[in-house]
């Protein structure tokens, strides 16, 4: 069996290692450059690879192709492979049959990293033999090849879900759905929504789907389509006989006729959106019958995720917050909504078809100045130009942070929450966040 892996990054190299271990004839092809550390791994493991090109005769003879999530379906080589009738799958689909572990699959437009990390934190604290995979840390395939976990908590992007055929998580979470990555879905929001719901398409009556009961796109899909999974809703406003909700400043979770309650003030994560993330993670913990005391302790000591509303420093009584992971409008909505002081907002980057008007009321209420950090800021300037007192364009992080310092007074907040991808000026949202933190420390 010949396995061709497109993309020599984390998921590609992980898949190659697992494929080799399972006796496949493996070839890795990357149209760009392969990082030095990944090349070494491929060489040590005796896996054939190429970079800077896709050689058709080495690719089109595949029995199965694993496509890394970053490669779009419309790329020429992927079209050619599909025309030949060769199956193109994602890393998760490839790796799942090679492990007997239970998987928890977490997807959504926002909140999935925090929910994934929090769920992992809860299960690990309970002493379970649990791995963390997907978009975070070591790839799922790599861990299946090298580790023996009983449970995996996997963060799943829509791109990974597009490439599944038979994979099903025992517990699925959809945190929320809002327009994102529409450039990959022919600018059709429905295509993106359907992609997220692939997480439940193979689930049976034995499985669970945890979801935001007040999310319009989710509820509309569930009204029109069927899933066999047992539904576990969560909500800030509605109550359930089976599900999670907030009542009188208490989080209540009812699953299998058992109740769990905890004062929301003891939950370490701040903000309404994080109460939702906590309800989702706690629902998983209760399905897996983790002790209530362990859950309470874990929720009260969880530290949060880097680049997600991360408090960096307070300088001259101005709080600097790194929310570089906010790569869409919906994320920024949560961020601005949780601001309690006048805010200087650093925004911009590669726009993925954003509608900034959704932020208008929050910007009017909370934002005193906007700093545009991107190559093309026209859209942001058009929408907010007449709304804030001060609008500035910069093309590097040092200038953005220095300008922000000039525009603030005591008691203000500087918020990096870009609403965009980072690839015009930075390598990744992590790179953007780290540069922000460094620039703040240099003030």
Question: How would you summarize the topology of this molecule?
Answer:
Blueprint: E1 2-6, H1 10-21, E2 25-30, H2 36-44, E3 48-51, H3 56-59, E4 64-67, H4 76-83, E5 87-89, H5 91-95, E6 102-107, H6 112-125, E7 130-134, H7 140-146, E8 151-155, H8 158-162, E9 171-174, H9 189-196, E10 208-212, H10 216-224, E11 230-235, E12 243-247, E13 250-255, E14 258-263, H11 272-287, H12 292-301, E15 310-315, E16 318-322, H13 329-337, E17 343-347, H14 360-366, E18 367-373, H15 378-384, E19 390-394, H16 397-407, E20 413-416, H17 429-441
Parallel strand pairs: 1-2, 1-4, 2-3, 4-5, 6-8, 6-9, 7-8, 9-10, 10-11, 11-12, 16-20, 17-18, 17-20, 18-19
Antiparallel strand pairs: 12-13, 13-14, 15-16
Helix pairs in contact: 1-7, 6-11, 6-12, 16-17
Subcellular location: Cytoplasm
Keywords: ATP-binding, Cell cycle, Cell division, Cell shape, Cell wall biogenesis/degradation, Cytoplasm, Ligase, Nucleotide-binding, Peptidoglycan synthesis
Family: Belongs to the MurCDEF family.
Written overview of the protein:
This protein is an alpha/beta fold and 443 residues long. 35% of the residues lie in helices and 23% in strands. It has three domains: 2-89, Rossmann fold (3-Layer(aba) Sandwich); 94-301, UDP-N-acetylmuramoyl-L-alanine:D-glutamate ligase (3-Layer(aba) Sandwich); 310-441, Protein-Tyrosine Phosphatase, Chain A. It has 17 helices and 20 strands. The strands form three sheets. It has a nine-stranded mixed beta sheet, covered by helices on one side. Helix 6 packs across helix 11, helix 6 (112-125) crosses helix 12 (292-301) and helix 16 (397-407) crosses helix 17 (429-441).
